[in-house]
Design goal:
The chain is mainly alpha-helical and 98 residues long. The protein has one domain. The protein is 84% helix and 0% strand.
């Protein structure tokens, strides 16, 4: 999804609809960095925790934007699922780290 934010023409229109055009590249970059951090987290549990936590925050904010623009529940499902998945990963990574 992060790469789509950076390179897909459709995402330009989506971010305009959200009123967040100026944040599209930043969000895409953060999502890609989070994905890389999750992969590297197999070796560095602290990085896995930080990456999953950061992605959880991004998905929570993404879900809030979906609510703000009055998207349907169906359109909110991906953000909600990714929020829960990343929160689960963060909790598991914290357990390995602590």
């Amino acid at each position: 999804y992060g790469l789509a934010c950076l390179f897909a023409d459709g995402m330009v229109e989506e971010f305009k609809r959200y009123g967040l055009s100026h944040f599209r590249k930043l969000i895409g970059t953060l999502e890609v960095a989070g994905a890389v951090g999750l992969l590297a987290g197999y070796l560095l549990p602290k990085l896995s925790f930080l990456s999953a936590s950061g992605l959880s925050v991004l998905m929570l904010l993404g879900l809030a934007v979906r609510v703000k623009v009055r998207d349907s529940l169906f359109e909110m499902i991906p953000a909600a699922v990714l929020l829960l998945l990343n929160a689960f990963i963060a909790i598991q990574a914290f357990g390995r780290w602590a």
